[in-house]
């Protein structure tokens, strides 16, 4: 399988309009357009009954000590962990493209309750749910796509892997606001093929991504 995007090139910079936040001279960052990027895939094997889509940041800090703290920097060698930005299941086999902004267009405080997407598809919970749990103005259940917002003082560039999986499932056996762990368990033995595309992003003013 092959996965491409007209929003960014492979291993290139994800545009600010597809991020949760962009750099700002005041307060370091401001909320952005938060549009899902364009994605298109091809080469699914015979027997594909549905597609699954994920987007995961592999570079989330494992300790919050230095995150977004004035006069400090998140060290590049700090151990990292995945941060989920998008989970979607039950994408019909005839759907092989998502337009930019078709599933997310703007930041929704407390999270999108019914994110748009292909007819029949369902979207799971991303990790902004946990990130904002102690924020009185933003706390909620975040479903669907919410784009990059790495720490503005992180010394490491973050890598976001978009992945499409062809499955033999007409309906993925996950329910409600499902998580990545739920999805991985449900897909065990049902993935026929996969394709991925990596984009990079940083809010650190010292870092320039080409």
From TrEMBL:
The record ties this protein, via SUPFAM superfamilies, to: PEBP-like
Listed NCBIfam families: YbhB/YbcL family Raf kinase inhibitor-like protein (TIGR00481)
CDD domains with a match to the protein in the record: PEBP_bact_arch (cd00865)
Q: What is this protein called?
A: Phospholipid-binding protein, PBP family
Q: Which InterPro entries match?
A: PEBP, PEBP-like_sf, YbhB_YbcL/LppC-like
Which superkingdom does the taxonomy of this entry point to?
A: Bacteria
Return any one Pfam family short name: PBP
């Amino acid at each position: 399988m092959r996965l491409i995007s007209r929003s960014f090139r492979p291993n290139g910079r994800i545009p600010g309009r597809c991020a949760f936040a962009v750099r700002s001279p005041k307060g370091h960052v401001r909320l952005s357009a938060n549009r899902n990027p364009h994605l298109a895939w091809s080469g699914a094997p015979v027997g594909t009954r549905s597609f699954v889509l994920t987007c995961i940041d592999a570079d989330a800090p494992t300790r919050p000590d230095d995150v977004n703290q004035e006069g400090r920097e998140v060290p590049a060698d700090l151990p990292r962990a995945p941060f989920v930005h998008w989970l979607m299941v039950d994408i019909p086999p005839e759907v092989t493209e998502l337009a930019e902004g078709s599933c997310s267009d703007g930041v929704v405080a407390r999270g999108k309750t019914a994110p748009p997407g292909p007819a029949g598809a369902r979207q799971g919970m991303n990790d902004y749910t946990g990130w904002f749990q102690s924020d009185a103005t933003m706390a909620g259940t975040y479903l669907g796509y919410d784009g990059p917002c790495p720490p503005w003082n992180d010394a490491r560039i973050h890598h976001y892997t978009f992945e499409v999986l062809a499955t033999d499932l007409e309906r993925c056996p996950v329910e409600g606001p499902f998580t990545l762990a739920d999805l991985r368990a449900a897909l065990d033995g049902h993935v026929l093929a996969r394709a991925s595309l990596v984009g990079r992003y940083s809010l650190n003013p010292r870092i320039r991504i080409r």
